[in-house]
C-alpha cells in the first residue's frame, strides 16, 4: 500500500515507521515543502519519499497528522478525495498544552468537522487517543497488544476494515467503537477513552 502523510511530525513519523517496517511505501508532506523533509526521508529509507500535500493525498490511504489550527490550510488545496480512506489522528486543541484550550465545535465531533473539509473522503478516527510516545514503539507486549480505538461512518464498514487490517498488521489491537458522531466522542479530547492506554490479551 502507498500511504500519504499530511504532516511530518511525531505522530506522522511514528505511523510512517510502522508502515515502512511492514513494506508499505510512504509519501510525507508538510507546509514547508518536500526539500525540508530530505533528512527525514533519508533516515526512513528507500520506501519513503517527500512530496506536496496533493501528492501525498493521491496515495491509496491518507493520514492526517497536523496540529488542529493547521487543518484548514493543510487540506485547502487538495483535490476531491473521492472514496479515499483518511485516518484522522488529530485532536481539537485550539491551543496546545501546557495551557490547552479545546475548540468549541458545537454538536460536531472533531472528526465530523474534519470530514466536512474533505468531501468525498471516508474518514476514520484513530491514533488520537494515544500519546505519541506510545504509538512509536512496537505495540505488542508480553501482556498483550496496545488497543487502538477507532470510529468512522463508512456505511459498508470498508474504510474501517481497511484501517483495522493495516493497524493490526502493525501489531495494534484495533477496536471499532462505531460512528464519528456518537462513538467518536468517546475518544476525542475530554472523552472517557481519551488517553486511556490498554492492552488486549490474545
How would you describe what is shown here?
With 202 residues, the chain is an alpha/beta fold. The protein contains 8 helices and 12 strands. Strands 1, 2, 3, 4, 5, 8, 9, 10, 11 and 12 form a 10-stranded mixed β-sheet that branches. The chain is globular, with a radius of gyration of 16 Å.
Itemize the secondary structure elements and their pairings:
Layout: E1 2-6, H1 10-21, E2 25-29, H2 38-44, E3 48-50, H3 53-57, E4 61-64, H4 71-76, E5 85-88, E6 93-95, E7 101-102, H5 110-117, E8 122-126, H6 132-135, E9 140-141, E10 144-152, H7 158-170, E11 173-176, H8 184-187, E12 199-200
Could you name the key traits of this structure?
single chain; 202 residues; alpha/beta; two-stranded antiparallel ribbon; 8 helices; 12 strands; 29% helix; 24% strand; globular
